[in-house]
Amino acid sequence: MAHIDDPKTQRANLNYIKTSMKEPLLTREREFELARRWREDGDEAALHELVRSYLRLVVSTASRFRNYGLPMGDLVQEGNVGLMQAAARFEPQREVRFSTYATWWIRSAMQDYVLRNWSIVRTGTTAAQKSLFFNLRRLRARIDDASGTRLSDEGRQIIAEQLNVDVGEVESMEVRLGGFDQSLNAPLSDSSDDDWMDFLPDTGPSPESVAIGMRDAETRSRWLAEALRELSPREQTIIRQRRLTDEGATLEELGRELGVSKERVRQLESRALGKLKDSMLRRIELPGDILLET
Length: 294
Hints:
Blueprint: H1 7-22, H2 28-41, H3 44-52, H4 55-63, H5 72-89, H6 98-117, H7 127-143, H8 153-163, H9 167-178, H10 207-228, H11 233-243, H12 251-258, H13 262-281
């Protein structure tokens, strides 16, 4: 998924880098003063000065992620978001340099961006998967050759121990990083008119099954309506409000409405369900199709 910026974008990125490198570095005292003014007084001028002084940190971090084939400008923008988040959360009284604190936020923002855009398939969601994604190549280069072959069992075990993950996760991530995105509309070969999509199995119901299901549903609805007409008005009320609505009424609610006890409503419901089942059984040949519970 390598991405090559167009000349105009490259010039804009270069100008941004030059501008960021011209910003003066801050002393610890000035850094804390700006952070305090922003945090306590809402001084936006102090915030802007603090952020501008560490744009070089964003550029430096973005350069470390260029090997993933994503636009440098996009990486910088994501890093700027992380820098602003750091400025919003920085607490000067903890006596930690802002650059140290902001580095984590900048790197985290860029890592999330890489994971979202490196592939159309989610590459990593857990902490272990993210650690594997960003460290597997580096660790592999240390313990294995660069021939492009799969890692040995011993190599996977070493990486798993260093990153505190399962060997199976190392193998799974190795396969993901060794693959590439491919469109389902791509031809099988240069000489073929067939796409990969043409060979995907259709696991959905067939048109015949859909039509039969719709017909059966209509039949069951008609039988149920006819069976309901055989019940007394009070029994119909109980069945409709207890069984034929998304949120069925409680026995207590129906008891108040009908002027009887909860136990009496339960008895009427049980009797009505029995009548419905008997009525439905008279209409079908397979009793197992009845879905009513008594």
